[in-house]
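Annual report, structural modelling task.

Input specification for the glutamine complex:
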Amino acid sequence: MSALTDLTLAEARAGLDKREYSAVELTRAHIAAVEAARPLNAVVAETFDRALAGAAASDQRLGAGEAGLLEGVPLGIKDLFCTEGVRSQACSHILDGFKPTYESTVTRKLWAAGALMIGKTNMDEFAMGSSNMTSHEGPAINPWRRSGDNRQLVPGGSSGGSAAAVAARLCLGATGTDTGGSIRQPAAFCGLVGLKPTYGRCSRWGIIAFASSLDQAGPLTRTVRDAALMLRAMAGHDAKDSTSVDTPVPDYAAALGQGVKGMRIGIPAEYRVDGMPDEIEALWRKGADWLKAAGAEPVEITLPHTKYALPTYYIVAPAEASSNLARYDGVRYGLRLKGEDLRDMYAKTRAAGFGQEVRRRVLIGTYVLSAGYYDAYYLQAQKVRSVIARDFKQAFESVDLVLTPTAPSAAFAIGEKMDDPIAMYLNDVFTVPASLAGLPAISVPAGLSADGLPLGLHLIGKPFDEETVLRAAETLEEAAAFRAKPAWLEDGGAP
Ligand code: GLN
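The model returned the following structure:
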């Protein structure tokens, strides 16, 4: 690892402006890091030539004084963002060989801001998972290890490859998507900042759909400031996505540095779940104390329907997924198996093309949408969803933000929880409610577990109030002063 890969995105950007190094040098340093870290399986398609060509163009713009917000910055792009001419498979077998002829709005905006794509990152198949274990490309590996234990750990999911890549210093930031926690939980597992914006803040156009009423794109970075910079470039109204909201994109970085004085921070009683490890509870208290010391006022609040969030999510998300995934029929995209007739071709292609978790979701989703069960499950879940959203609305009448832990545990070992889907789904217990309510939320690295793994704190904000979320996140970041790195990075070795 070279010093260039250890810069934050904001530092790298400032160094480029001062011409301390070129965008080509910065890109080469990250390419070398990706090559050295291939055992992590974080990157499923390397796009080095394209990154270098882009870097040369960035150097010209930097020289001409025409640099964009993210000029010359190498990023990882989750494999479910459609990138023109480059593999975009959501790490599913059924999309084998799919190279879109168009660019997703979010990535198009990133390239317009001068950012460079170093590669497509590994993920749970169609973003269904919390461990990156459901990827058709095999698991991505967390760059962190427990102290004194060399077992490989999951990076979380579904944006596991993006998180592993940023934590291992393979890129300065990465895109993720979050349907129920897929940016925030991997950020927590890998010691990163992960921001899920308000539903509607970033366009979903060109992002391979999982559950359309929940999916949102957002950044994974090593600092809060970097997340603010990336979000500015990613966000904005898009006529091609009717759920993207036409409201101006603020200069998020400009909102930083203002602290939390006078803010009221809600601490929801219902997030004290059974079996939560003491160290997570202790970190949560510490987070409240940090905000208090910075001039905010923590207040106990109640979000009474929290316990219904997870079962509601696991009806709504599979229902939408079963509908979205109906398009993969072997005719238009990727994989096709031969069949005796059209129906047989559909069935064989879908059986071979979808992994076990995706098939489980399609089955659950089709069931809850079926004629006899629609009212009992899907409609009921929609009603509960609006009650959960109302809980937050009421809470936000008296507080500015809600503070919770990000996940109920630190990263677990590869293979753990795989035989128990419910245990896997419990990973999302703290992240899913904000997804159902469409609210912005961030995970900030806040400390280490007893065995030396990163733990995250989670802030949930009011709709389109990412600025307040980022401000308070920065206060937590400063107080936690999280400087730890995976041991092999400290030693300058390889993963
Ligand atoms: N882990 C959750 C799931 O499996 C959330 C995934 C996501 O946010 N994409 O559905």
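The pocket of glutamine is lined by residues 127-130, 158, 178-182, 210, 317, 428 (CB under 6 Å).
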